[in-house]
Amino acid sequence: MPDLLMDFCVQFARTMIVSGANLERVHLALERLCHAYGLQDVSIYLLSHFVSVSAKDADGAYAARQASIPAAGIHLQRLKQLNRLSYAIVRDRPEPEKLQDLLREASAVKEYSDWMVLLAQMAAMACLCLIFGGGWKEIICTSVVTATMHYLQLALAKPGVDSIVVNAVTMFAATALTLLLLLTGIGADGPVVLITVSMLVIPGIPLVNAVRNLLGGNEMNGILQVAKITIETLALAMGIYCALWLFGRGSGMLETVASPLSNPVALMALSFLASVNFGVVFRIPPHDLLRAGLGSLLTRIALIVLMPYIPSRLALIALAALVASLYAEILATVRKDPSTYFTYPSIVPLIPGDLFYYAIAGLYISDPGMVLTNGTNCLLTLLGMSVGFVASSLIAHYVRRGKHIRFMRKRAKLPAAASAPASAGGREKRQKEASK
Predict the structure, then answer these.
(1) Strands 62-68 and 40-47
(2) 19: which DSSP letter?
(3) Using an 8 Å Cβ cutoff, are 283 and 111 in contact?
(4) If 0-12 CB within 10 Å is exposed, 13-18 middle and 19+ buried, where does residue 410 land?
(5) Rounded CA gap, 305 and 308, in Å?
(6) Closest by alpha carbon to 2, among 72, 96, 87, 78?
(7) Exposed e or buried b per residue across 326-358, where buried means at least 16 C-beta atoms within 10 angstroms of its C-beta
(8) What is the pLDDT along the chain (436 residues), one digit of tens a residue?
(9) How many CB atoms lie within 10 A of CB 178?
(10) What are the domain boundaries of the chain?
(11) Which CA distances in Å does 114 have to 76, 111, 120, 280?
(12) What pLDDT does residue 104 have?
């Protein structure tokens, strides 16, 4: 029996992480699954690219499995199904032989077509373009650049090109194409276009997960993730800078910058619509898209209400992120879904695409003050996001850990026969001992 369970556990963990689960959620799910079947000496080691699980059953049979994990994406519908599968297995304890079939069924979710994902991505970018002050010319330009980035990333992903190279090449191509559209008169405000499309690739979500791992007991993985995110961000900056340096001279790239939208009602409506469309990109099913948009709406309301009273960017972003994260955690607890299912769409209004671009633009025009001001504010924004989300996550972490401890104590009080399905050899052995 432990061999079958270990096979299932590594495949389950692999599929969850690839779908966008945080490691804490996966670790707790594996612990509950193993102990639900009466396994002992359970050892679980997780990294974002590696999983190892070992345990033994009541008869002393030992098994261990390891597996590498490919580059993770975000597929929240599959993640939701896998999370619910873990609860169902712990509750019903089906025969180990059936677990792989159950995993395949849970993974086989209905997919959005590629063109629907692209249209949703373009619609989300159009909403963000309006928020950053763009007009209809900028929306057209942004849509063209977004489609180009989409297909370029797909093309680079097929041969397995490293994400650092993908980031550099994608932003180089996006910047060069923006400059070309600007020269042909299709676009009028290049910075707004680049600020908008950079929102697709700035690693805000991975950074939040990395800090969560650092403070949630997964220090090694957190350190590795922070290092990787730093290098990926530098690759993005290098792509933009190189394109500006090669093609930006005389383009008037920095001369026209629209003012960001200030109407509160319009900001809330566009934030809601952007996150609804990002929900499609993240593969959230249609019946949950409104909940995805509601998280972004609450985040935007928090920013609008708190901004006049909190001058510190770090504190402002941290409080807004805390609002978004609490919404996600409460909804996840009520619905028994992973919190990331509602967190990822809620994070959209906080990603500092404008500050990121202006820091690089300052480097391009050799303006140290511009680099320092925007770079510092960008870092403070990312740090504030991490602090807000991690504060809520730590509360939820200890709540979940407390529930898990109570679950384990309850399991420990059950008779061995009731706590796990016995193997055939174990049943025969106990029957012989009983007859004696």
Answers:
(1) unpaired
(2) T
(3) yes
(4) exposed
(5) 7
(6) 96
(7) bbbbebbeeeebbbbbbbbbbbbbbbbbbbbbb
(8) 678 899 999 999 999 988 888 787 888 889 889 888 888 888 998 887 889 999 888 888 888 999 888 876 788 889 889 988 998 999 899 998 999 999 999 988 888 888 999 999 999 999 999 999 888 888 999 999 999 999 998 898 878 788 888 889 999 999 999 888 888 877 677 788 888 998 888 887 787 777 777 766 677 777 888 888 888 888 988 998 898 888 876 555 655 566 788 899 999 999 999 999 999 999 998 988 998 899 999 999 999 999 999 989 889 999 998 888 888 888 887 887 777 788 888 888 888 888 888 888 888 888 888 889 988 988 888 888 878 877 776 666 556 555 555 555 565 555 544 444 444 444 344 344 434 4
(9) 33
(10) 2-110, 114-395
(11) 16, 9, 10, 11
(12) 92
- What are the tokens at 291? 């909940």
Q: Tokens 């909804």 belong to which residue? A: 331
Extract the tokens encoding 70. Answer: 């490919």
β pairing state of 62-68 and 50-56: antiparallel
Q: Give the CA count within 13 Å in the CB-facing half-sphere of 311.
A: 0
Please give the DSSP secondary-structure letter assigned to residue 202.
Answer: S
Say how far apart CA 137 and CA 142 lie, in whole Å. 9
Kind plus residue range of the DSSP H or E element containing 53: strand 50-56
* Torsion from C-alpha of 215, 217, 223, 228, nearest 10 degrees: -90
Tokens (6 digits) for 428 = 């025969």
The angle, 0 to 180 degrees and rounded to 10, between the axes of the packed helices 2-18 and 99-107 is: 10
Token readout for 220 is: 């090694």
d(CA 436, CA 332): 52
Closest residue by Cα to residue 127 from 275, 274, 297, 298: 274
Angle at CA of residue 349, ends 344 and 352, nearest 5°: 105
Cα distance between residue 39 and residue 387, in whole Å: 37
> Which residues, listed in sequence order, are joined to residue 51 by a DSSP beta bridge?
46, 67
- Nearest 5°: the CA angle 38, 40, 44 is 110
Q: How many CA atoms are closer than 13 Å to the CA of 108, on its beta-carbon side?
A: 6
Nearest C-alpha neighbor of 331 from the set 392, 388, 391, 282: 392
158: exposed, middle or buried (Cβ count in 10 Å: 0-12, 13-18, 19+): exposed
The two most distant CA atoms of the chain are separated, in Å, by: 95
With H, G, I as helix, E, B as strand and everything else as coil, classify residue 180: helix
Q: Which helix (H) or strand (E) holds 380?
A: helix 368-413
Report the sign of the C-alpha dihedral through residues 209, 212, 214, 218, in that order.
negative
Report which of 279, 124, 119 is spatially closest to residue 197, judged by C-alpha positions.
Answer: 124
What phi, psi does 93 have (nearest 5°)? 45, 65
